[in-house]
Amino acid sequence: MFDEVSIHYDRTNTILSVGNAALWRYATTRAVDPKPGERVLDVAAGTGTSSASLSRTGARVIAADFSAGMIEVGRQRQAGNPFIEFVQADATALPFGDAEFDAVTISFGLRNIVDPRAALAEFRRVTKPGGRLVICEFSRPPAAVVRTGYFAYLRYGMPVLVRLASSNPVAYEYLMDSIAEWPSQPVLSEWMRDAGFERVAYRNLTAGIVALHRGFVPLTKGE
């Protein structure tokens, strides 16, 4: 599915988010706070738009995605960026060693993984002690009026925009369902704690339509 939508994926996201995608990406980059020389794993990186933002400080970004089509488009678009390396990878069985990355991040991809809790365990495994995980994901607006309007948009408004913007409108039917069925902010926070992250917290963006979650890997004993 993602192979088929890869060419116009970024354009479609911009339209469907009503221009908010860039703001969410900026907030995520600030939350990750990549430092020069750090190694950052960007999971479900797609075409590398988020990876490019993370790499601007001089961090080395591994852009991982399950979709070969997304990886191919990303490599073409980021061909001139020496700080990004694209890797095709399964988030539930990452091809990296333990404690390799200073930070791991995933934006709007965790809900598309068959076993998100297994993916969280993998993120914990490949993150260095003291390192951080940042998740940007669609969520459940806490205000009832916002939640009602949002789900009405998912049901009635988004399909119209998808037909106008996407190269494969049928594929987005799944994406809309996955957003509607995704658990609330407190549930995802609990999943992160269960995976071994500490100091887990989240903050809502755009009235809770999107939430930023962050957690840290505990330092090893004696540090």
TrEMBL record:
GO biological process: menaquinone biosynthetic process; methylation
This protein's pathway: Quinol/quinone metabolism; menaquinone biosynthesis; menaquinol from 1,4-dihydroxy-2-naphthoate: step 2/2
Residues at which S-adenosyl-L-methionine binds: 47, 65, 90-91, 107
Enzyme Commission no: 2.1.1.163
EC top class, as a word: transferase
Catalysed reaction equations from the record: a 2-demethylmenaquinol + S-adenosyl-L-methionine = a menaquinol + S-adenosyl-L-homocysteine + H(+)
Molecular-function GO term, any one: demethylmenaquinone methyltransferase activity
Keywords: Menaquinone biosynthesis, Methyltransferase, S-adenosyl-L-methionine, Transferase
Function: Methyltransferase required for the conversion of demethylmenaquinol (DMKH2) to menaquinol (MKH2).
Assigned protein family: Belongs to the class I-like SAM-binding methyltransferase superfamily. MenG/UbiE family.
Protein name (record): Demethylmenaquinone methyltransferase
Organism: Leifsonia tongyongensis
